[in-house]
Write a structure and sequence with these properties.
ten-stranded mixed β-sheet; 516 residues; single chain; globular; two-stranded antiparallel sheet; alpha/beta
Length: 516
């Protein structure tokens, strides 16, 4: 049993080592300033990327020096951004640079060019495909907040649906301590881990690659990053694909408060009917209603008596975290069904399966991921700082959308208590946006379709490919319709004349049970 198996495009990759930078007499393509930021000092604009083989895989890696604060580049210690490259397979047919970025915020993007080059030979022939670890992440200069035990307690320690005064006050206090840890442990880095600062890192990277314009592909949070880059530097983008888009202009609070509905929709309208359809295999409910009742019984049992699974304390919060993770892709529905079956009858499971599940449930959210995630989300755009508002809002959302409605308080309480940000608001739509192709899945749990539609409406001239399914991240998933639109656009410049639609990938059919 392969629990929590992820598609190749999301697989973790070994971080490239940080390599020394040497100065060139002149910049290959100096990064010109944009409105609101000073000119790029020569020590950044004239550096050379010293490309060498990455420790693993087929990529080249280097490191790039960036200022801590692009608005005051002489203040504070410099940061390092790790970058990677897959050279165009056909130099004679090479048409430019395709930049990739990762989701999260908090995920590593360094190894992603290798996956795309393998998946799309046509793009690998036409482009140098490049990636990077965003400031704060992975092999770049990290931002540090709380240790892993503290993060585990915040998001896996009990039952966030518990609305007793003691439980609510505990959630607020844990959020306060997390923010305090970030203040103490980040070395003054917090104010500079923002999308706005990362956008300027990206433009320096473009300049050091010696190209006037880039093309771009990004999923999930990388759509927020890409859209902000296009607004800030519209003449430096040739073609852009935003996969499972976040509405950058609406701000993070608007986006995050839309997620309880979309996660609940994915769970109730896609996963539970699929589970009931295959009751002959899983025996977890013959109807969606029965399957949901079984989930709630399991959750209540874990609330009353958390399960000790090979040293991992399985609580309702850990069950919810696993469930939300595994409904990102329909291909992982069998994994979630296996998790539910094992937790209902752990003594009947093989030791190896119990150990594998215990390891996956141990950390609902990685400490390094959490540090970068909250730094970006809490600072990019304003949050309501009234904790009473969030207690009431999360209580209401927990009643109507219980899968993550209760968790909303943990996230919002962090941002409500975060140091006030100096980051500029996301730029307006502008008048010279490049061609942008957008992809949105109707039942995407993480980046809800309604937000993707708003983003499309706010990005003048964009085209939207609606995918009738529920997967988060629809390119590089073996969908010929989606792939045709994306690769036709990036490789050949074929922008659809109007918005279009594709059917999503079919849900998996599990193997029938063996007959005795």
């Amino acid at each position: 049993m392969h629990l929590f198996r992820k598609p190749v495009r999301w697989a973790a990759t070994a971080a490239c080592g940080l390599l020394a930078l040497a100065a060139l007499p002149a910049s290959p393509a100096a990064a010109a300033p944009s409105s609101g930021a000073p000119a790029v000092p020569g020590r950044y604009a004239h550096q050379r990327l010293d490309w060498r083989p990455c420790p693993s895989g087929s990529l080249e890696c280097a490191s790039m020096t960036v200022p801590r604060d692009w608005y005051h580049p002489g203040a504070g210690a410099d940061l390092t951004v790790a970058v990677s490259r897959h050279r165009a397979a056909d130099p004679a047919a090479r048409r430019g640079v395709l930049m990739m970025a990762a989701g999260g915020p908090g995920a590593s993007g360094l190894g992603r060019p290798e996956g795309l080059a393998s998946y799309a030979p046509k793009l690998a022939a036409a482009y140098d495909i490049v990636g990077f670890d965003q400031r704060g992440v992975g092999a770049s200069t990290n931002v540090v907040c709380s240790d892993q035990d503290t993060v585990d307690t915040m998001f896996g320690g009990g039952d966030l649906r518990d609305r007793s005064p003691e439980a609510v006050n505990g959630t607020l206090e844990r959020a306060r301590r997390f923010v305090e840890d970030c203040r103490k442990n980040s070395g003054g880095l917090l104010p500079f881990i923002t999308t706005d600062q990362a956008v300027r890192d990206m433009d320096l990277y473009r300049a050091l690659l010696g190209t006037e314009r880039i093309s771009y592909y990004g999923p999930s949070y990388a759509t927020f990053l890409g859209a902000q880059y296009a607004r800030t530097f519209p003449r430096r983008v040739e073609r852009m694909v935003l996969d499972s888009a976040i509405d950058a202009t609406g701000g993070w609070e608007e986006f995050m408060t839309g997620q309880p509905l979309s996660f609940q929709r994915r769970f109730e309208e896609d996963f539970l009917p699929w589970l009931a359809l295959h009751d002959d295999v899983y025996h977890l409910g013959r109807t969606p209603q029965e399957a949901k009742a079984g989930y709630e019984r399991l959750r209540a049992a874990l609330r009353d008596r958390p399960l000790d699974l090979e040293g991992t304390r399985v609580t309702p919060d850990r069950l919810d975290a696993a469930t939300t993770s595994l409904i990102y892709s329909g291909s992982r529905f069998p994994d979630l069904a296996a998790v539910l079956g094992l937790l209902q009858n752990p003594d009947a499971a093989p030791p190896a399966a119990r150990q594998a599940l215990a390891a996956k449930l141990r950390h609902p959210l990685g400490a390094a991921f959490a540090a970068d995630f909250f730094s970006v989300v809490c600072q990019d755009s304003p949050w309501n700082r009234d904790l009473d508002h969030w207690v009431a809002r999360s209580e209401a959302d927990a009643r109507t959308h219980p899968m993550i409605g209760a968790r909303e308080l943990s996230y919002a309480a962090v941002c409500a208590q975060w140091p006030r940000s100096r980051a500029p608001r996301p730029a307006g739509n502008g008048r010279e946006l490049p061609p942008i192709l957008m992809l949105g899945s109707t039942h995407d749990p993480a980046t809800h379709y309604e937000g993707a539609v708003r983003a499309h409406q706010r990005l003048a001239g964009s085209r939207m490919i609606t995918v009738h399914g529920g997967d988060h991240g629809v390119y590089q998933a073996g969908n010929a319709c989606v792939d045709g639109y994306v690769e036709g656009f990036l490789a050949d410049g074929r922008m659809p004349a109007a918005d279009a639609a594709c059917e999503g990938n079919p849900l998996p059919v599990p193997a029938a049970p063996a007959r005795g």
